[in-house]
Amino acid sequence: MQILRGLAAMATVVLGGLLISMAAHLLFAPVPVEVSWVLLGLIGAGLLWSAAKWFIKPLRGRITLIQIARWLETRHPEIQERVSTALELSDHSKGGVSEGLLQQLVEEAEGDVKGVNPTREVRARRAKRWLWPATALAAVFVAVFIIFPEQSRRLLVRAVAPFSDLGNAGAVRFTIEPENINVLEGDEVRIVIKYSDDNVEELALVMEREGQDPLTEMLKLAGVEDGISRFEYRLPSAKESFHYFAQTGKAQSDGFDVRVSMLPRIEAVKIGVEFPEYTGLLTEQRPLEDGISALGGSTISLGGETTPGVERGRFLLDGEEVGTVRIERGPERSKVLVNWTLEPEKGGLGQVMLYHELGREIEGLRFPVKVEKDAVPQVALLAPTQPELRLRPNEQVRLEYEVLEDFGLEAVAVDLVINGSEEPPLSAAAARKDPLSANPLWRGEETVSLGELSEKYDNLEEVRMAMLVTDNLPESLGGPNVGRSEWLVVKIDRNAESLARQEIRAQQSDVRETINEAIRETREAKDRMEWHKENVKKEELPEQAEKHLAEARDKLANAQEQLEELAERMENGVQAARAEDVREAAEEVAESRERLEETPLQDTPEARGEELAEARQAAQDAIEKLQEIREEVQKDEGRLEQLARLNELAQRENEIARQAENNEQQEGAEAEANPELQQAQEQLEAELKQQINQNPEARAEVLENQADAAAELAEQAADLSERQESLADAAEAQLAAQEDEPQEGQPQEGQPQEGQPQEGQPEEGQPQESQPQSEAEQELAEQIREQLRAEQASIVEDVQEQLAEARANLEDRANLLPEAVEQAKDTLESLEENFGEAAAESANEAAESLSELALPSEERGEHSGEGEHSGEGEQSGEGEQSGEGEQSSEGEQSGEG
Predict the structure, then answer these.
(1) What pairing do the DSSP bridges indicate for beta strands 256-261 and 251-252?
(2) pLDDT in tens, 508-541
(3) N or C: fewer beta carbons within 10 Å in the chain?
(4) What three-state secondary structure class fits 888?
(5) What is the C-alpha to C-alpha distance for residues 482 and 471, in angstroms, rounded to an integer?
(6) In whole angstroms, what is the distance from residue 561 CA to residue 582 CA?
(7) Confidence of residue 815 (pLDDT cuts 50, 70, 90)
(8) Cα(147)–Cα(262) distance, rounded to whole angstroms?
(9) 613-642: per-residue pLDDT in tens?
């Protein structure tokens, strides 16, 4: 009963407190949140007090039997305290109380207790005293929830949960659409509030933002339909999330949230560019800045961060979806990774579209995409410098060119137009990259033989040629690119001057004319400065003086520009040594112009006069410098005439060598020299000797070149001689073995010698073991002969190569090498036919011929004169004594002797 009474008391306090709080929220609505918390606190305090007083405390206080006995004795005096006395004496029986007396007292107490009815003495009336109010309050609570379920529910929630978004009892009259809203930043927010009362003219919309004071906006009545007032709220562009509820009078609606998600923008963007393989470039990291610009075929990797609400994405290039977009979602930030390959000529506007979880696709990033083209090779023809030439049909045109190319070259050719008709290009040697150039620059040269073209095309009258360069751009990327130089027009004229002479004359003329023009411009500028050397000292410069000084500045600037361009042209010409002098003269002109420009800016007349004087002096120094250069250029005329003559001879020599090479290819290396070519060679040698003797510098250069070539050929001949001597010794050894080593036991008449196949059986008395021994020796001899034949064939091939090289270089060895070739071939044939003595003799002769070729030219002449080689040796000796038909090296020997 004690527990029931405690629970009933606690229920009475709680139900009473809740009903009071609900009534307060109904009557005094809207109740501030603080008051709601106070009411809830009072209810909680009352619950704790009632629990302590009527539940915990009674249960903790224990009632003893003695207390119960005394309580009964007060209600029944007739017991005369016998029960309590008996209980007390029983607890203290050792205190000297008589056992008999105590037993008698206990028996009397038991008799008194048996007459007491516990149900009558202890009734539930006190416990039921708290059940009535608890039951009544519960009944009221239930009745309220039955009659006003929505209102009661809201009032109860507000009483026990002041932090709840649920409205008060008046919230049942509100209808809000769309309640909780999720929008993206910048989207429009539209809230429609309906209130079931047509007498309401305005309504308050309370908006609460985190960290800010609540904002109340009064909404005017938008319309009434069927007794329901309608209000609207529009927010054109949502920026922040907020909590809102509507309020009119005492009625307050439920609270809702407008959650504004940030637009999915891509930030912290980084770009990775992986260039095509053919470029040889490494992967590059760069910022986005003004967009993406990279070479076609490059793979682009774009990375960045965005808001966590992004689910997927795609990349658009001019509206067309390309590449891949990958989203790595995170709790706070998501990563965006975009990859695609730039296709040639497919640039435009790039857009990274992100699909948000709210069902919207938003542009997260836009930027321009530019696809760079692999530039077409820029080919410039450096030489010849003239666009049109008249040349002889046996001329050789040396084309010097440079190529400006981004990454690399694939092929070089000479484009040809013969007599107005396009012909297949001539393949050319690859150009070499200039390692010292700041730009990717290639340089090369190619020689075109007009004589060869004349042989190939009939009635050759005009040749248009240009350098054709193909880069290494792959076909998959639209390549390769082909660049062409400017056309060089060559008109065939048998009476024309040589190309070397025309080039030298054109360069000399260019230098003289440019220097004369620069001197004239500088002198005129200096004259104008002389005219006004007194006027510049005045406080105000006359108008005429300003005009003349401006003209002087223009003339100096023009002269400076002309000289700088001339210096660049001279670097690749015959006057390359004077290019730096011309550049220094240009600097003098520039100094004069700068001084002249500074003259009007001086503060005092004296300073202006001094500045103008320095400008005049710099102009005079430039004029003197240019005059010195002009005189030096004029002095070079004789030297350049000799240079032109040497170049002409070199052209003829190259043409003869070309014809000799063609003749050799057609008839073979062993063919005799063409008499016409030999005559042309002899004539050329005589002219070349004359020019070399007249020009010491050229003479020294030719001697050095011939010495190098002769030394190289001598080394090759010495090597071949050693190999030939070794073969000769081997051949003699084999021959001796065949003649001097009989088989075991003297062979009988008609029996074959060792190394020959045996016929018939051995005679009586000859051992049978001799036949296997003969076969083994025969096999060994055959192996030796095979090795000798292979080595001799190699020597023949090497000697033929030396013959071709000697003829191309116009060496006197070309007259002796055919004999060595024939002797080496004879040795090879003898070995193949198993002529032992003939092979040994031919090998010795070939070795002697090659040994002589390994000697210096003067020693070969002595040996030839002594008659070592009959016939040809005598002719060679006579040639040296008479001096006819000598090569340049032999001519020098005779000249020095």
Answers:
(1) unpaired
(2) 899 999 999 999 999 999 998 888 888 878 877 7
(3) C
(4) helix
(5) 7
(6) 11
(7) low
(8) 46
(9) 999 999 999 999 999 999 998 888 877 777
User: Phi and psi of 720, rounded to 5°?
Assistant: -65, -35
Residue whose structure tokens are 């909404």: 219
Closest residue by Cα to residue 483 from 474, 495, 471: 471
CB 233 within 8 A of CB 193: yes
Pairing of strands 361-372, 292-295: parallel
pTM surpassing 0.70?
no
Is residue 210 classed as helix, strand or coil in its secondary structure?
Answer: coil
Q: Which 3 state secondary structure label does DSSP give 275?
A: coil
| Peptide bond connecting 32 to the previous residue in cis, omega within 30 degrees of 0 | no
Tokens representing 627 are: 């005059």
For residue 361, list its beta bridge partners.
355
Both tokens assigned to 337: 């990774």
In the block, which residue shows the tokens 């004690």? 2
Task: Count other Cβ atoms within 10 Å, centred on residue 9.
Answer: 22
Q: How many CB atoms lie within 10 A of CB 689?
A: 18
Nearest to 582 by CA among 500, 519, 505, 504: 519
Q: Most distant CA pair in the chain: distance in Å?
A: 186
Quote the tokens at residue 660.
């000799």
- In the chain, the amino acid numbered 303 is G
52-82: b (≥16 Cβ within 10 Å) or e:
eebbeeeeeeeeeeeeebeebbeeeeebeeb
What is the spatial distance between Cα 693 and Cα 96, in angstroms, rounded to a whole number? 169
Strand 284-286's sheet: what is its strand order? 284-286, 267-274, 299-306, 334-341, 324-328
Residue 314's H or E segment, with its range, is: strand 310-317
Instruction: Compute the Cα dihedral for 499, 501, 503, 505 and give only its sign.
Output: negative
Which of 444, 348, 372 has its CA nearest to residue 403? 444
Residue written as token pair 């005369």: 80
For residue 680, give both structure tokens.
């042309």
Closest C-alpha among 865, 887, 892 to residue 876: 865
